[in-house]
TrEMBL record:
One of its GO terms (cellular component) is membrane. The lineage of its organism: Bacteria, Bacillati, Actinomycetota, Actinomycetes, Streptosporangiales. This is Uncharacterized membrane protein YgaE (UPF0421/DUF939 family). It is a multi-pass membrane protein. Keywords: Membrane, Transmembrane, Transmembrane helix. The keyword Membrane applies. Residues 352-379 are annotated as: Disordered. Residues 34-155 form the Integral membrane bound transporter domain.
Amino acid sequence: MVRTRLSDLVKERLGTFGLVAPSIAQCAVGSALAWIIAIQLLGHPRPFFAPISVLICVGVGLGQRLRRLVELVVGVSLGVGVGDLLVSWIGSGAWQLGLVVALAMAVAVLLNSGALFVAQAGSSAVLVAALVPGEDAGGLDRMADALTGGIIGIAAVALLPASPFAIAAKHLSGVLDALSTVMERAAEAIEKRDADLAAEALDEARATQAAVEEFEAALATSKEIAMISPLHWHRRARLARYETAALPVDLALRNARVLSRRTLASLGEASPPPAALAEAMREVSEAALLLQLELGAGREPTLAQQALLAVAARERPDGLGFSAHVIIAQLRSVVVDLLQATGMGHEEATAALTPLDGPNGANAKNEANEANDEAAQRR
């Protein structure tokens, strides 16, 4: 067991390294080039802002590099400007440094509350205040170094790009895996009448929001790389499928949380959900994995769509308690969400569902709709 977990951990780390390796190469090559260009072409003796700009613009994580470039250059300019102005009046020292940093960051907050913008203004002011005037290049030279590094960083992203498709695929895979696991555990809890399994499903569902947010950041980065790099312009159509799936998959997970919570509650009632409901949950779990595989292969998710349509067309079991009706209504919402993730329109996906009639069914449907509205507001 320990060996298996260690093997899985090593595979996970290697997979993560494979995703960030291009960014590491971009940082290394870009930093060296920015240093050489600033020295050889601009004639700056110590252009430390040039490689720093590359590192901040490229980074090794996910984020919006173009926005970081703008914030970097403006932040550096602000910090250098405030720093140079004050140091020329009050000189250098501990209290002068504190005053320069406070004023530079205060002005940055008033202009833009972005963390990078404020931090860069403060750190630039520190460097200016800590260097004795005349020891280093002036403010305009530092601003030119920052701009040079930013341009080199964007060029590195364009010419040494990570695969935008691989980034989006890996993170959506994590989201769909989580959804599949929640549905599978909820189904098993119903089959075994096991409240502990239902609680595990609920815990798993509650922990999924971080994966959704990581996927959204990864998708933004992937779209940016595809826009910047000519090498990946042809992948925009494949990325469009992930963009289509982003919001519906998020909503499917939110609905799965409500479903798992109701599953746990239902196991304490006199009329627990029938095994047929667990079977439908398991089919949705498998459809989520099919969606993951088809999108990862760059294909239209037709098999996943067919599997979901089969669940949508299922007849509702008879003799259900209130909680079971709620679970069914919530499961139907998950099916509609995933059908939309395959590219189907909302009206067409909703029309594929069998009618949900009866007083309990109507009440359950109303509760599910309220849960959906609450999820949309939280978003």
